[in-house]
Design goal:
The protein is of the alpha/beta class. The chain has one domain (about 5-190, about 230-250): 3-Layer(aba) Sandwich (Rossmann fold), CATH 3.40.50. The chain is about 45% helix and about 15% strand. The protein contains 8 helices and 7 strands, in the order E-H-E-H-E-H-E-H-E-H-E-H-H-H-E. It has helices at about 20-30, 40-55, 70-85, 110-135, 155-175, 195-200, 205-215, 225-235, and strands spanning about 10-15, 35-40, 60-65, 90, 140-145, 180-190, 250. The chain has a 7-stranded parallel sheet, with helices on both faces. Helix 3 (about 70-85) packs parallel to helix 4 and helix 6 packs across helix 7 (about 205-215). It is globular. The model has no long low-confidence stretch (mean pLDDT about 90).
């Protein structure tokens, strides 16, 4: 679905050079947004920008890690320079150093790295963009995980980070309402057409054992796709969701229910 009221709006998508981030950026571009996407790889960024331009979007790429606060400031500055401000921020870039792993098999250094590499890249862009979003009365969409709501073997730290993002979404929803900024989250489960999917089913034996069982339990006999998750993220960024803030929507294909 395209949202015509988004035409000309300025959007940032961190982690927008591939996977879910790029799927979200494409949907924003199709609705007429101008984009700044970020990512770690120059080549992938250049390819992403070309794809977005083919959809008619004015697009730019900023290389760097969204876990680097100074880089987040550069991303926001580029959006202001190129497109006059920031109306929409999608914080989707937070690639961990490794995937799910049993807690007792993780070293103290891995515990620290796994948390920091997933948590700070998600919230630094929000902090860096807050002033610009107040000017535009804009909105934020954070990407998190259903592991925050449902215990999954090997995802103790991943779930802990996800739970932190869910609670921050609630709290910032209240804080940001004073500045007319909306903030919501999308919680993912096992999702096809993403780098995590490729890693799980091509490389790691532990992850394959855990998630191949989950794959069999989807009521529709398949996992959600990145594009289906992107559709929900873009809806939350649209004026159609003007009365939704502080909320987390799970796109889990009915794999699990309940939670908090």
């Amino acid at each position: 679905m395209e949202y015509t009221h988004m035409k000309g709006k300025s959007a940032i998508v961190t982690g927008g050079s591939g996977g879910l981030g790029l799927a979200i950026a494409k949907r924003l571009a199709a609705s007429g947004c101008n984009l700044v996407v970020s990512g770690r790889t120059e080549a992938r960024g250049a390819e992403a920008v070309e794809e977005l331009k083919m959809l008619g979007a004015k697009s730019a790429f900023v290389q760097g890690d969204s876990g680097d606060y100074e880089n987040c400031k550069r991303i926001v500055a580029r959006a202001r320079e190129e497109h006059g401000g920031v109306d929409i921020l999608v914080s989707a870039g937070a690639e961990g150093p490794f995937g799910p792993k049993p807690f007792r098999q993780m070293s103290p250094a891995q515990l620290e790295e796994s948390f920091a590499s997933r948590f700070f890249p998600r919230i630094f862009p929000v902090h860096a963009a807050a002033d610009a979003l107040e000017v535009s009365k804009g909105c934020v969409v954070l990407i998190t995980t259903d592991a925050a709501r449902f215990p999954t073997t090997g995802e103790s730290v991943i779930g802990a980070v996800g739970a932190s993002i869910i609670l921050m979404t609630k709290t910032l929803g209240r804080e940001f309402s004073k500045a007319n900024i909306r903030i919501n989250s999308v919680a993912m489960t096992l999702t096809s057409a993403t780098p995590s999917w490729d890693r799980i089913f091509n490389n790691d034996e532990f992850e394959w054992k855990v998630f191949s069982k989950a794959l069999e339990r989807f009521p529709q006999k398949r996992a959600p796709t990145a594009d289906e998750v992107a559709a929900v993220a873009v809806f939350l960024a649209s004026d159609e969701a003007a009365q939704i803030t502080g909320q987390t929507v799970s796109v889990n294909g009915g794999l699990s229910f309940g939670g908090w």
